[in-house]
Structures are given as structure tokens and as C-alpha cells.
Amino acid sequence: MRVVVVGAGVAGAIAALRAAERGMEVTMVHHAAGASHRSLGVVDVLGYLEEEVESPAEGVEWICRHRKEHPYALTGADTVAEALEFFRRKAEEAEMRFEGSLDENIHVATQFGTVKPTCLAPERVYTGRVELWDGAMVGISGRVQRDYSPAFIAASLAELVPRLVKVRPAEVVHGEGELTLKPLSQSGDGEAALPLLGDGRAVIEALVRLAESAGVRVVRDRITGGSFRGNLLEELRGVRSTYRADAFVLATGDWIGGGIHGRQELLGLDVAGRLELRKIPLPESGHPYALRGVAVDGNLRPSRRGRRIENLRVAGALLAGYDYCTEKSGWGVAIATGYLAGGVE
Ligand SMILES: Cc1cc2nc3c(=O)[nH]c(=O)nc-3n(C[C@H](O)[C@H](O)[C@H](O)COP(=O)(O)OP(=O)(O)OC[C@H]3O[C@@H](n4cnc5c(N)ncnc54)[C@H](O)[C@@H]3O)c2cc1C
Description:
Layout: E1 2-6, H1 10-21, E2 25-30, H2 35-38, H3 56-66, H4 71-75, H5 77-93, E3 98-99, E4 106-109, E5 115-118, E6 121-122, H6 123-127, E7 137-140, H7 150-164, E8 171-174, E9 179-183, E10 192-194, H8 200-213, E11 217-220, E12 223-229, E13 232-238, E14 242-244, E15 247-250, E16 260-261, E17 264-265, E18 271-272, H9 288-291, E19 293-294, E20 303-304, E21 307-308, E22 312-314, H10 324-327, H11 330-341
Parallel strand pairs: 1-2, 1-15, 2-11, 7-8, 7-9, 9-10, 15-22
Antiparallel strand pairs: 3-6, 4-5, 12-13, 13-14, 16-17, 18-19, 20-21
Bound molecules: flavin-adenine dinucleotide.
Residues 6-12, 29-32, 34-36, 38-44, 197, 222-223, 251-253, 256-259, 266, 316-317, 324, 330-331, 334 line the site of flavin-adenine dinucleotide (FAD).
């Protein structure tokens, strides 16, 4: 069976890897870096509902019961757990170790001098998690870069951490400490690190290389449209070529990845959610724009002009019904839905 996956973010990479593992003949088409490349490269599964979430597993269960439109309610909690283990296994095959558990969020310091909850993190980021700062002197070190100021981060964390995290107050200093953190890209084996925006790129590139070595044909092209016959997608048209397959996965991301522009989705799929102007573009409580995306059925199949497209599945940030900015669920949803979409029969 031939499968075409559009998108090489985390959703597309996981969909392609899963389809290849199931013996499909897979082509992956992508054209530029999306949100995954620009991210911190830690796996947020669920950081916040009304309040901060301690156990992502319990939070996902809650969503499955109460938020029917959320992608986790479509995949189900078991698939989220299975998909995370699949991601962890594939990352390991690509020689990257991710630590953490679906049962418990950890907290990591960021380049903005803030702390965020997340679920899985690269080994060295996990080694620097805030849960280990209990009463210690924590040093923020490393070379100053355009996007990295250890002095600023230390000053900000020294104020924030005692209020935010349930550890005995740590003393955060600029320089070396009992536990010293550097940017992931400047750290070596066994050292503790904090992630910077853009660290996601290395993870995605490694997964795409792994997919290639598993037989996935990876093509650089920009899809501009598709041809439908009845309730089937027949082919996708790119700038360079056309792509025919028995099944398709669309993992083109949101407005950052390029999958959705205002009211329009690339293939004219039905888009759900309101488009409203707000004075503050990204209020803390979330923006209706973030919930916009392609609405799908329980098998992640979208509709076009009200008719379900049987051989197309949608994964990742292109999906409607969730707001990864406020709930911190970006890679989690992309991994769970990419895994489900890649499990084509
Ligand atoms: C600044 C920032 C930091 C973040 N940090 C984190 C984090 O640390 N942890 C976390 O869990 N979440 C994070 N998120 C959220 C997370 O990055 C996204 O939810 C997730 O990466 C979406 O993945 P995706 O594969 O669905 O889309 P994307 O990663 O956006 O991938 C879309 C893909 O589709 C391709 N594409 C689009 N249109 C076309 C076309 N016409 N033809 C061919 N290819 C096309 C693009 O080339 C790209 O490969 C962050 C988001 C942002 C904006």
C-alpha cells in the first residue's frame, strides 16, 4: 500500500515512521521548517487545564471524558501512551534519549528565564529539571549568544522559582553552582542543560533521517492542491511533481507550519472554529484562533464541503479543537495523532 505524508514536523515524522514500520511504501513531502523545528524540543503532553496539571496521564483521561472535540478524545488515552512509547523508541533508535513519565510532569528552565511544565525531555534537560534544585545553589552558565543570556536567566529565575515550584528555595546564580545548567547545544554528556527555541530541529532532523533509513522516500516540494474523486483524494499536486497514493496523511501544521491561512486550508478541507480579532493577540487565557483547524472524525478523517474523505487523515497542529499554547500539549498531540494517522491499514 502506498502512503503519502505531507509535512516533516513531529506529526509527519511519527506518521511516516509508523507507516513504514507497518510495511507501507511511504513518501514524505515537505518544503520548509515548521513549528517543530522552532520549538524547545521537549515533549509537552498536557501542562495546564484550568490549573497546572501534575499528571498528564490523568489530565488526558479528563479530556477524553469532558472535551469530545479535543484530539486526545479522538485518539483515546491508551493511544497517547502507546504513541509516546513509540516516539521514545524511535528517538532512541536515532540515538537520542528522552526521559520522563506520562504520570508526572517535570519543570524545566527556559531561555526566557521562566519555568515550564513538560512531560518528556532530552536526557541532559531532564538532568537539569527544577525538581532537583531543592535547596541547592544552581548556576546558569555557558557562552552568551544572541538568544541566550545566562545573567538575565539567573536574575529572572532567582525571583520566579521559589514562587513557582514546590522545592525548597534554591539559590540561582549566574555562573557555576552545585548544579550547573548550560544550553543543550553547549553541554556535553552527563551535564545538565536547558532547552532553547530551535532545539527541536535536531530531533526532527534525526527522526527524518531515521525514516529515510527505514525506506521512506523524502521529497522537498510544496503541495499546492489536490484532486478529489467522490470521497477519495486521488493525487496531490506539488510545484515539482504530483503524488498518487492509496492513503494520505496531512500534517502541514497550523499558520506557523503553513497548513492553514486565515479561513483557508490548502486542499479546501472544512475548517472549524471562530476567526475573531482580539486586542491582545495571545492572551493568557488563549485565543479562539488557536482552536481553529480541520475538524475530523474518530479516525482523523476530515471533510470537504461536508463530505468525508475516506483515504485522508489529518495529524498535528492542523487539527481543530485544542490550543497548544495555553494547555502546553504541542508535541503530545502531534505524536499521538501522527501515530494514529500512520497506522493506516
Ligand atoms: C515557538 C514555539 C515553541 C514551541 N515549543 C514547544 C515545545 O518545546 N514542546 C512542545 O511540545 N510543543 C512546543 N510548541 C508547539 C509545537 O511545536 C507544535 O504544536 C508542533 O510542533 C506541531 O507539529 P506539526 O508536525 O503538526 O507541525 P509543524 O512542525 O509546523 O510541521 C508542518 C510541516 O508541514 C510542512 N508543510 C506545510 N505546508 C506544506 C505544503 N504546502 N507542502 C509541503 N509541506 C508543507 C512544513 O514544511 C512542515 O514540515 C512550540 C510552538 C512554538 C510556536
